[in-house]
Predict the structure.
Amino acid sequence: MRIRRELVGRADETSLVEAAITDGHRLVLIDGEPGVGKTRLLEHLVERAHAAGRTVLAGSATEFERLVPFGTYVDAFTRLTDAAPSPPAEAALRALLSADKADQLDRYHTYRDIRSFLAELADDRGVVLALDDLHWADAPSLELTEFLLRRPPAAGFTLAIACRSDAVPPVVGEAVARRDPRVTRLSLAPLGEDAAALLMPPEVDPRRRRLMYRVSGGNPLFLWALLDADDRRLSELAEDRPGATLALEQTLLAVLRRELDRLSPAGRRAAHAAAVAGELASLVVISHVAELDLAGTAAAVDELCRHGLGTLAGARFTFRHPLVRAAAYDTCGAGWRVAAHARIADHLRGNDGSLALLAHHTERCAELGDERAARTLGDAGLAYLDSAPTTAVRLLREALRVLPERDDLVPYRGVLLTGLARGTGVMGSLTESRRILHEVIHLPHEVASAAVAFSSVISRMLGRLDEARALLSAQTRKAGDDGRVRAQLLSELAAVAMLRSDPGGARRHAHEALALVSKTTDPALEAAAYALLAVACLQDGDLAAARAHSRRAGWLMDSASDTALVPHVELVAPLSWSEISLNRPADAERHLARGIDLATRSGRSYAMPYLLIGQAQLRTRAGRLAEAIEIAEHAASASEYIHSSETLAMARCVLLLPVLWRHGVDPAMTLADSLTAAGPGSAWWQAIAYVSVARVRLAGRTGGDHPQPPVLTRDTEVERLAVQSIRAGADGDVGTALERSAAAVEAAGDLPYQLGIAYDARARALSGHDDLPGAVAAARIAAERFGEGGAVVERGVAHQLLATVHGRMGDVASSHAEIGRAKAAYRESGADWLAGQLTRVERRLAASGQRHVARETALTKRELQVAELISQGLTNREVAEQLQVSQKTVETHVTRIFSKFDVRSRVALARRLASRGDRPASG
Ligand SMILES: Nc1ncnc2c1ncn2[C@@H]1O[C@H](COP(=O)(O)OP(=O)(O)OP(=O)(O)O)[C@@H](O)[C@H]1O
Ligand SMILES: [Mg+2]
């Protein structure tokens, strides 16, 4: 007997579904007990979304494949591309499936890509993503779903989820609890008696109908399962209709198992084979697994369809409901099931099947000591490390469990263990990762060294540099004469020293590494060592050496093949950092682009934050603020994904200035506060954070202290001196301001950006000292140097400073011109907040310009005489004598003159008079 296909009851729910589609709700959650009709209602939603012209993606999770990564999404995108192929859908599918391949995408990238493909698919029609049976979703699919909920890809994006009430994923639950009007929750209750009656075939008599309703409690699936039950069984079941979900499911399963008992032996075998095969259940596979010939299989599958247990679409059999499959899976016998999984694994091996499915079936039949199974699981685990670390860790554990304990397999065991450590480390269980690495450290040194180098990476990401250093030093001693291995460990040591602001140590280790590398012909490793050397020289203030090493590193990196570069890709970050500092933005750009591409393709997710941070810094310098912010935020999210507190703090550091310039003091201060609370662990980045936070605080004219870095290196010295100078000037301490700005100029060497920073501070100090012509000259140099250094925003700031000083000098025309230049620079760079501030400055200047003119022309004849004598260097007494007035009177005149000219010293007054071309400076 068959149940009706059209939807019965559910009038309220369907109208809410209609509204959610029309209004483009963000989330629709359909929940309820097993079999209550969630899938059915979701199907209805999908039909309605199609009818409304939306792009629809529908995928479902399955109970027995919940360990296959991204299964739910692969299903959705496969169905979409089958129905209507489109480039974004195909690209999305490739991204999801590439988790299979050796050069997979890393997890965070996969999420971002899927998100942008969905945005593309949404275009202006909107997109509905319907995910069914989410209670069975694999962990990566759930994470991706959470990601899409937190960051919806487009305005017209609707996520529709069907899920059992007791397994609603936490983020979905939270979204529903927030009572957002764009979220709809449909908690399905069992059907009422009338609706249930509509589901039953008309020939069922009223007494039986009532009994069935009582037993099923209005649960449609239960009703269907009862259709063929005899009266005695119905009465038995009526005694205790279970209330709880679990009990309901058990009862349903029991009922369904009895359905299966009624099949012929071949039919039952086919059902069992199809249950184990899942989405692979074609006639050929069923025949292979059930060990039936093809004709027998076809007859058996027909029998299943006749009993309403499932349908055949093309050559593929699908069960009518997941619970039917579960019942079949349960009843096939544990031993037979293991053998069935092994037969499917064989089939997949013979047919080049997906590594994901192969691993899934292998996992279910792997025996201790089975090397082939161990390698399948191990290779799959290694391939998933970055895209689906949870899955990877599970597969690697299983691989290690079954891998035979043989001497020749020790290196492979080491590789698996290192992978396992990487997976657990990336997932944030550092202690677990460290424990595993300890196991590896006892293995032969080639394997151990890779593990130690990786553990140093973990420690660096957590800002635990002492730990990294200790491990590396110990391993370097053990590493013996293998030049390559030693060079690698020494480079890592140099990186740690660089972060500790120990340029001497970094130079020493890098030189040692280079001495070994020259014998190995590994250009990428050599490039890495030179890059570290370049940064160490910058930290030492040895610019000539920094230039030479940075160029050499860049040249070597350009000549290294992708394969050679991948293991050292993270060290593109220090290279580009040196190139940015040494004013070679084009080189930095090229190297970062390649590094990011390689890190993405090779799944080295831990390298991404470093590279993105370099790129954000480059964009900030070039005045591409919107991009800089986006990239730095991307670096921050990528850091959160890999639980790297250190790169998170670094990303926030590089966010400070672009956020300040674009969005203003408040958001920048919030960031600065987060850095005060949880700043970088490395001394070098503490120094970088220190100067950046100080610049933000200066802009906000707020005090408050950010912790001073423990070690100061030369690369941040100019900025530090400049900040101190400007701060002293703001406090009225003109002497200190002048002295610090002079020191900054001295320290800047010949680097344009540094010179710009120093002369900007110099100009401010001179302006505070009322040396306005001096201030103008210094600010001009600042603007020019910033221009040379490609620092668009800072150049704008220097022009703004020039405008203010010209304004103070009463030179309205020059002031206007400078404002125009500042404005253009801010507009070009997207420095919206600065542009807003500038408008205010402009208004103030216009007003005070008029005041200046008014005041200065209002100088009395006598005042003018006094002013001119004073600027010739006469004392008050001498002026009094010459004009034949009392000294007291002269003092009064002087006070007035100072006030009218807005100056505080006689020298300044002289300069002011000299700069007013319309008046003679003397005579
Ligand atoms: N309102 C309805 N009208 C018609 N048929 C329905 C209705 N609700 C459910 N059914 C049918 O009852 C069966 C079970 O429903 P469905 O598969 O939607 O349950 P479910 O809540 O998704 O269960 P599970 O929790 O196991 O996923 C299906 O065959 C479905 O077509
Ligand atoms: Mg369902």
